[in-house]
Write the structure tokens for this entry.
Amino acid sequence: MSSAATRFASLPEMLNNLSYSIINRDLLRNLCLVNKRFKSAFAPSLYEEVWFRAHNTSFLMEKLPLLLGNQALRYTQKIDLAISLHSRKSDEQGKGVLCDFYNQSIQALLSKMPQLNCFRWEYVPLYTTTLATLQQNCPNLRTLVIHHPEDIEEILGISYDFNWDHDLKERRPLFAFQDLGVLSGLTTIEVSNIHGDLEITRKGLVQTLLNSPSLKTLALSISGFTVFRLWKVNTRFSCQQYQNFLDQLCRDFFDAGGKPLQLQKLVLGLSIIPWGSGDCLRRLTNLVCLEDVYIFNEEYETALTFSDDDDYIAWSLLTPENCPNLTNVGAYRLTKSVERWIGSLTEGFIKQFNTEWATEEGVAALKWDTDDTQTRSAAKLRSLTFNVNITWDMSDLEQLPVVNVEKLQALSAVIVHSTPEHQTGILEWLSRAKDLEQLFFAERCCANIPANTNSQPDNEGFEYKLARQCKKLRYLRLDQNAWRITRYDPAASGLDIQFERLDRFETRLIEEFQPRMIFREDW
């Protein structure tokens, strides 16, 4: 009689169900190599998402024919490209040639992906033909994420101050404008570094919103180069184009017959500002549905400025009365206006707060171990992300513990943690973190810090010390290294803690490991 494992492995429906619960790509790849039955069961999950980074650009170039011949592409639901044009060094291939390769290769792949529902594009100029191919070949598209290059206006030759130091000039007509209005049925729209003629871009966005009544996530941000260029024109009309972009977008949507959307997540990036009372947002979305809001309340040189005491942003709109389902809130800068707004909220209203620029005093205002009614709003804060912009002197460890972590379940912070002195201070600070389950520390931009290839941390290393200090910790990430923590009875197994490395797909499923900075993949 065959074993239970053998009988299980012989049932295709059981293998299929198992494949849906496996996230780790190495494991899925190995399972596909077992036999034909396993390959049939696990290949759809392995190829559900196809992504391209600097290390695998060969599959968009010399290995493209091999990839196009892979029948498993018919299972692909997500395609994700994020490749800097500086990442592939070659004397023969300039930026223009690489743009051609990436756009044309993706166009060829899109024709092989009838189930595609998510398209993500970053760093590379997006050709109009690529967007047209997406619209023609992928009728099930629901998520559109486009992060234009930060220097897109310089590439196009329309920024205030530019010089042509690359071979993209002759290709300018290929990516000068993308008409998003041709797309429909989207549930997620994320566009950063909006540039060029903002009037035309806004009209295209309005049409896309009208075509997508089931939209749940909207994230927009204008290019800093565009803001500065329009400011230098120095006319009332040019400044209003970027200062009142959101207000005019909402008005145009309403005037075109659009009914308030049911947005659950709203990310307002550079110069996408709800001024004053924020009533314009009521034309765009039903505030009752909002669960997650982020506002980039940061100045841009002299083109966009805020008063130190009052930024005139509609924080007062985000209240339990207007947004009863709102639990996650973020602001780039923890200003006095934000502090006053937090202090006015009902206790327990916010469960997760994140800020990327704060003073010690600002973060300290989020304490919840006090009876002061001005800070009681954070009494049930579950998750906190912060970056205190101070120089943490190793000789003064008292600078760090400005935040009471006693009741937090999740914490992420930009913080120096690579020296023994800093690690000692952090461990002392976290000694009160009895309920902490997720922890993420990054030293500034961790995208520039390579991952450690060792599968297990050193038994006496900082990772083990953190796990032993925080008894409930289940997930830990330090810069690019992320682990799942399993605890054992040492008397039974000889081990008390085991670390299991998470790949990038598993990492992004952990709430506190997700990026907090606006339109950034990694900090």
Q: What stands out?
A: The chain has a mean pLDDT of 84. The longest strand covers residues 188-194.
